[in-house]
Amino acid sequence: xxxxxxxxxxxxxxxxxxxxxxxxxxxxxxxxxxxxxxxxxxxxxxxxxxxxxxxxxxxxxxxxxxxxxxxxxxxxxxxxxxxxxxxxxxxxxxxxxxxxxxxxxxxxxxxxxxxxxxxxxxxxxxxxxxxxxxxxxxxxxxxxxxxxxxxxxxxxxxxxxxxxxxxxxxxxxxxxxxxxxxxxxxxxxxxxxxxxxxxxxxxxxxxxxxxxxxxxxxxxxxxxxxxxxxxxxxxxxxxxxxxxxxxxxxxxxxxxxxxxxxxxxxxxxxxxxxxxxxxx
Length: 280
Known about the structure:
Blueprint: E1 2-5, E2 11-16, E3 19-24, E4 30-36, E5 39-40, H1 46-49, E6 62-63, E7 95-99, E8 104-110, E9 123-131, E10 135-144, E11 150-152, E12 155-156, E13 159-161, E14 168-171, E15 176-179, E16 184-187, H2 188-192, E17 200-204, E18 208-213, E19 218-223, E20 230-235, E21 241-247, H3 253-256, E22 261-263, E23 267-279
Antiparallel strand pairs: 1-2, 2-3, 3-4, 4-5, 6-12, 7-8, 8-9, 9-10, 10-23, 11-22, 13-21, 14-18, 15-16, 15-17, 17-20, 18-19, 19-23, 20-21
């Protein structure tokens, strides 16, 4: 394993010439590309990435300390700014290092003056990416350095390349889902049929969600055990991509309390997710 620096703040974490990931520490610790056995797994809009006036479309953005948005303004009092959608982690500069013992890429984010403008807690966030030929294993550790319990949500937002919407078939989903476009409970199978029109659904899963792409002849499986077992499916046509996202908590969780995680002082919350690729 090795890390190679490229231009424009993008680095390569490489197993070999056919298996590597690219990442940008300065742009939210973003994984921009993942190549598995010489196949591009992730969708990434490079032109949009270099236009810093626009939000990123692609890669694996990191959602912390909230997933989605908050309904209440000034949740932490008038002395703090309102948290933006999906939190601040995806907008900040991260540190990184090669973990030689685990042959993994480690990314780090700690509280700083900027984070404390929004979120009055002291924390250390570490993400380890373990790269194999047919899988990417993601270990997350969130350490609360504060003297008080720290409320958090955490999520990942992977964008997957697809051949065409009509070639996609999902597996392992529950009967019902929350349609986040209109906040209604609907039958998952019916909503998934509208993938090519654009969907945004939240599902309470058993910790495993997958889809087959019959055009690319592969199956992508997301394994995300509790408390990381919420899955959001999102599409944004005409982009040939879909997002299959592990979340700990639904939108507005810090206010509603629904599946909010409170980390006690001097305690670490660990989360695990993995993405596997199988040929059809």
